[in-house]
Amino acid sequence: MAWTFAERIMEESGIHIGNRIIIIGSPGSGKTTLSKRVAAYTGLKLVHLDDLYWFQGWCRPSPKEWSEVQSRIIAEPRWIIDGNYADSFEQRLRRADTVIFLDMPLLSCLFGIMRREVRRVLGNRESLPSRVSRDKNYTSRLTIDRRFLWQVFSFRRLTRPRMIERLESAGHPMNIFVFRRRRKANEFVMALKQKANGYHH
């Protein structure tokens, strides 16, 4: 299995990514922003799991509905899926041929979260799940749910080791790109941009 760390990416003779890409990492690591940029230069269908999961009023689907929705998406031949969602990670991983792991430091993730929350308070709804953003009754306050903060602070200690273990035991060849600095992720996107014509088909 090819683990490609940020320090090696610019030294590779070429960057190869497949047709089914999952993008994972701590909240605030930049998954959504990166996924949009990768989609722009690969032409792959982009799926934000938050858009599928959250309804107006921050309501959730039933476990059965959620499983069916994801199964339909994962069965498609070409996609980029942005989001962690541990309940379906194994299912996505079995179909993926490329993983982009934003392994950013805690402070970088906290900065990303605060910047996003400030933008929402100022009226920018772009980072909201699509159905929540269309809710006319939604108002953003500069507060962050304690459970969400727990996910952020516990990511490196609890979630990250489980993700790495699953990646190591995936059982099929994949390209795995690991970024520990935002600058390196940006360099990766610029390299994709240069190869963009070769990925559109």
Description of the molecule:
- It is a single chain.
- By secondary structure, the chain is of the alpha/beta class.
- It has a single domain (2-195), classed as Rossmann fold (3-Layer(aba) Sandwich), CATH 3.40.50.
- The chain is 52% helix and 13% strand.
- The protein is built from ten helices and six strands, in the order βαβαβααβαβαααβαα.
- The chain has helices spanning 6-9, 31-42, 49-53, 63-75, 86-95, 106-121, 130-133, 146-168, 182-194, 196-199, and strands spanning 2-5, 20-25, 46-48, 79-82, 98-102, 175-179.
- Strands 1-6-5-2-4-3 form a six-stranded parallel β-sheet, with helices on both faces.
- Helix 2 packs parallel to helix 9 and helix 4 (63-75) runs parallel beside helix 5.
- The longest helix has 23 residues, at 146-168.
- It is globular.
- Residues 1-13 have low confidence and may be disordered.
User: DSSP strand (E) fraction?
Assistant: 5-15%
Structural class: alpha/beta
- Indicate the percent of residues in helices: 40-55%
CATH architecture tag: 3-Layer(aba) Sandwich
Q: Would you tell me the overall average pLDDT? A: 85
The top-level CATH class is Alpha Beta
The fourth-level CATH homologous superfamily is P-loop containing nucleotide triphosphate hydrolases
Q: What's the end-to-end separation, in Å?
A: 26 Å
> Residue ranges: pLDDT <50 for 5 or more in a row?
1-13
Give the biggest sheet: 6 strands, parallel
Query: What is the rounded Rg?
Result: 17 Å
List the helices and strands in order.
EHEHEHHEHEHHHEHH
